[in-house]
Amino acid sequence: VEDVTKPDPEVEAGDIVLNEIFSKHPDPTVEGDWVELYNTGETDIDISGYLINDAAEPAGGFAIPEGTIIVSKGYYVVYQPELSISISSGGEDVSLGTPDGTLIDYVFCPPSQADGTSFSKIPDGGDTWLNGTEATPAAPNVGDASIPSIYVDYNVAPAAGEAIELLVDFTTSATVSEVAVFYATGDAPEY
Known about the structure:
Blueprint: E1 16-22, E2 34-39, E3 45-46, E4 51-53, E5 62-63, E6 69-70, E7 75-79, E8 92-97, E9 103-109, E10 117-122, E11 128-134, E12 150-154, E13 166-170
Antiparallel strand pairs: 1-2, 1-10, 2-7, 3-6, 4-5, 4-8, 8-9, 10-11, 12-13
């Protein structure tokens, strides 16, 4: 087994952070994507022109309208269709940048549960991301930060003799010291 670490893009940290992402509404007739930002600082901040993108770099993303201010310890939520990007429910990068495109926050948003839950930081503005948390737009996030979010991806039907590729991505590694992978073939019992 080869242990490969994918480096995150370099981020210039700031007081405005990505805080909660909702990427698939359980009702397919509803455009449900939204992104929540949080001001971790002690002062109000004008976020006019800040960029939110569904890529590792913020350039080319949704530009926050002029005159938008997040109060200290406050939230800003942008919903579709105003949010001109779409966060893939299959998982993808999400970035936040200043108007000049400087990256100030980044996360890989894992696949959506598609059950009305979100991907959120616990506590607000903290370092731990959890998937499958109660959606709380413009309100404090709810969840147990001691349980890490883990995303597993694999090639479902490799050809005979082809290696099975398995990607295990941790949203946080603070509480993860080891991972065990179990698999079954044919009529073997499921784990």
